[in-house]
């Protein structure tokens, strides 16, 4: 599986394009997806799904255009649906323009597959109630949104955030993955599960 990264939107959110055997999946198109669409067209790729780790505006800003242009369904956890009625989800937050609303399908935590690969949809609330992570074991990759960053964690001071819940999500769902698993976050550079277990300052009180 190829993984390409695009920094989209006003907050330069990481949008990931996953490619395998002529098909593709996008994770968190946070702004104008024109660059992603160009790759899809130029390489004659079929976009099968648009995955959202959560419904904050900087992760969903390109959803509608990407879905309209490709016909790919948008999948997300419906526990974040309420955010689309708020500035935090719809936009207008920090004076930024509102996003175009979109239709989506609920995705349940558990085992599924994308691109012909096994994928575990992990419930990882804390940054938002419906935050989920997408783990591809055969690719040694997990896409976590704003749950976990390189040497940091996601904010929990927004409505629906909870620091203890977030830490438990990281420890229970992410730190149980193989240590070589690459963690692809919503912002910043990738890291690994093992590196964060050893060096992330927010988990020094935990024994692994």
Automatic annotation (TrEMBL):
SMART domains in the record: Lactamase_B (SM00849)
Keyword terms, alphabetized: Hydrolase, Metal-binding, Zinc
Keyword field contains Heme: no
Gene Ontology molecular function: hydrolase activity; metal ion binding
Coiled coil: none
Cofactor(s) for this UniProt protein: Zn(2+)
Domain named Metallo-beta-lactamase: residues: 12-187
Entry-linked InterPro entries: MBL_Glyoxalase_II, Metallo-B-lactamas, RibonucZ/Hydroxyglut_hydro
The protein, known as: MBL fold metallo-hydrolase
Organism in which the protein naturally occurs: Oceanidesulfovibrio marinus
């Amino acid at each position: 599986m190829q993984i390409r990264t695009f920094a989209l939107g006003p907050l330069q959110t990481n949008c990931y394009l996953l490619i395998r055997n002529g098909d593709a999946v996008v994770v968190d198109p946070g702004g104008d997806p024109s660059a992603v669409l160009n790759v899809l067209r130029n390489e004659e790729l079929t976009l099968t799904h648009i995955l959202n780790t959560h419904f904050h505006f900087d992760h969903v800003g390109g959803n509608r255009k990407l879905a309209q242009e490709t016909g790919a369904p948008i999948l997300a956890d419906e526990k974040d649906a309420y955010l689309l009625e708020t500035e935090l989800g719809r936009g207008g937050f920090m004076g930024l323009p509102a996003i175009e609303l979109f239709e989506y399908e609920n995705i349940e935590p558990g085992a599924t597959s994308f691109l012909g690969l096994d994928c575990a949809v992990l419930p990882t609330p804390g940054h938002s109630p419906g935050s989920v992570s997408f783990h591809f074991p055969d690719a040694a990759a997990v896409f976590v949104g704003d749950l976990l960053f390189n040497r940091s964690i996601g904010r929990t001071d927004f409505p629906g955030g909870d620091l203890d819940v977030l830490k438990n999500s990281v420890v229970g769902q992410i730190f149980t993955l193989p240590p070589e698993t690459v963690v692809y976050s919503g912002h910043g550079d990738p890291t690994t599960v093992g590196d964060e277990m050893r060096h992330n300052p927010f988990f020094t009180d935990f024994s692994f």
